[in-house]
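Input set for joint prediction.
Command: fold jointly, output tokens.
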Amino acid sequence: MRNIKLVLEYDGTDFVGWQIQASGRSVQQDVTNGLRQILGEDVSLIGAGRTDSGVHARGQVANFHTVSLLDPPSILNGLNGVLPQDIRVHSCEDVNEDFHARYSARERVYRYYLSLERMAIGRFYSWSVPYDLDIDLMNDAAGTIVGEHSFESFCKNGSEVDHYRCIIYRSGWVRSGTMLTYEVGGNRFLRAMVRLLVGTMVDVGRGFMPAAAFQEVLAAKGRQRVGMAAPPQGLILEEVKY
Amino acid sequence: MRNIKLVLEYDGTDFVGWQIQASGRSVQQDVTNGLRQILGEDVSLIGAGRTDSGVHARGQVANFHTVSLLDPPSILNGLNGVLPQDIRVHSCEDVNEDFHARYSARERVYRYYLSLERMAIGRFYSWSVPYDLDIDLMNDAAGTIVGEHSFESFCKNGSEVDHYRCIIYRSGWVRSGTMLTYEVGGNRFLRAMVRLLVGTMVDVGRGFMPAAAFQEVLAAKGRQRVGMAAPPQGLILEEVKY
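tokens >
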């Protein structure tokens, strides 16, 4: 059996998320359907990260096994021909049989885009926060999560996970004009974790929560309430590293 | 009568354009409706530029006369409260009675966004041209239009204009990663002019037309066929200067 790796971009606006659900349009289902059209085969598509409803991806990685002999460029072009315009395949290649999009991943990189203005253009790809935000305080908070921590405080209820430990390699805000971008890279992320981190850091940036309190929330391991989750449309899974 | 100036941003995706039409959703109609709700008055809204269907604006300027005594911040906040999310008002101010959004404008600045990759995210705000483009040749062509010229060759049939002369102040392409941006500033623009210029310059960039031929097309004043108009979604009216 061949093992094939895809790098996918998608606009999450009209999806219930990556994962196939009982109802609603999922990326996993659309790509699986596309592969059935191209390969004449039902494959099991494994994604690196289960993005939530409305969350986008520029570098989602997926893999599947197939007996097809179709060469990678033909699969790539065939898929881009049959897939809807809100999913694009950027690359397609044969990989080792032990490659697993989810378990082989070393780092996932997310960016969250936040606009300080009210926006019409691009409102589906950023969160509009038309207030004064202190980016230095937000970076103080962002820096505290680097390293290995238990993120129970920044995890949506109902997540089925064995443990809450994640290793964060980088976490910081950059300002460019009226756009603030948060970039975070880590070995794994819990459900809604990035959005809960962003929502809480915005509370810090607005002066509603001291940066020190942010650290306390993290240390409380779920016994202390965090801020609101930032809305999904600002979040993009940028890259998965292996 | 007060004369009030608005700066507007809109996502043109779901509009038939700026101007009120027999059917379909127009920006002019939506803003006029919003003002009726806020002021209790039917105003005549004058726009600086009549953007086509699907074309966006980040800095469209409009003005209207009113007998209302409502202060500008209340009009701005009121409008943003009642307008749909794809139109945002960035500023609102009282101006001299002789200010006319269309006739007082000195310069209109448009940008056209072109991606060298197939895109899912942002596909409504750029044109995807996944081919090799020679940006130096495109800049050679872009430079030839600076100054005063007759743009009959770059004007959609059926435009009702007295003359085709436009003064172009700047015209050039910039590359940033896989995104090419064309910026053009001029005293006036004819119907679909920027899109016809971009479509023809892309032909130059792909090697389908020599840069010298671009100049001939311009000189032919409509007697020579131009390339296709670039699609509307890549075009944004960025700013109007007075």
